[in-house]
Amino acid sequence: MNRELGDKLLEARLAYDYPAVTYDFADGRERQFPSINDLDTYLQGFLRSNDLQKLRDGLSGLLYWGHYRAGYRDYRVAGFRNSVTDIGLRRAVEIFPTLQGVGLVALKRLGLPEFSNMAFITKFRTFLDPEHYCVLDKKIATLAPLVGRLKQQPTCIPVTEHNEQAYQWWVGTCSSLASQLRANLRPVDVERGIFYLIERKQIGLAERLLSDLPARSQSAALPR
Predict the structure, then answer these.
(1) CA 90 from chain center: how many Å?
(2) What backbone torsions phi and psi does residue 23 show, to the nearest 5 degrees?
(3) In the 8-state DSSP scheme, what is residue 141?
(4) 3-class SS at 68?
(5) pLDDT in tens, 86-95
(6) How far apart are the first and last CA of the chain?
(7) Predicted confidence (pLDDT) per residue in 182-213, tens digit
(8) What backbone torsions phi and psi does residue 32 show, to the nearest 5 degrees?
């Protein structure tokens, strides 16, 4: 990777400023974490729990974080908590250990409220395994390489087998960039740096980072 581009990506990752905040439903209060990595660990513990109430709280907390800057945050969280069933949560507990590859279509088939399209299904996948996965949302999907790979709808990116392949490309790309930077980065760290660049209207720089990476490196970096 071009050293200058690599340095800019590292700077963007360090500058990533989306709030590391969620809600503690057991204590009934908002919780702020020292870093986004601490939030990753906290939510992963809930999402990997076999306890249905903890899983419900973990998914609710993920929604709280993901919608933190949106005026409808509390509405979406309450809607999920009021409509999710123990049957759905139990199916989720059963499927997590058997997920193959990125597993987006399998996660969508669970039918969990609020977890049906690409943005939150990939958030779900990422917090289950932040060492190997990353988020793909509408902002990331504005980048030229993804525009050409995804089949999008006006308000969302549907989870389909076709779009799952595009997500595999995205994960492989972020994995390869992380390994080239040699800074103990994960795919999600790269994605967050690129997200920061997009938020700061530096889309050209984000796209240069992606185009600077050989295709063979992207495919080799996919998680098994």
Answers:
(1) 22
(2) -120, 135
(3) G
(4) coil
(5) 999 999 999 9
(6) 24
(7) 778 999 999 999 999 999 999 999 999 998 76
(8) -110, 140
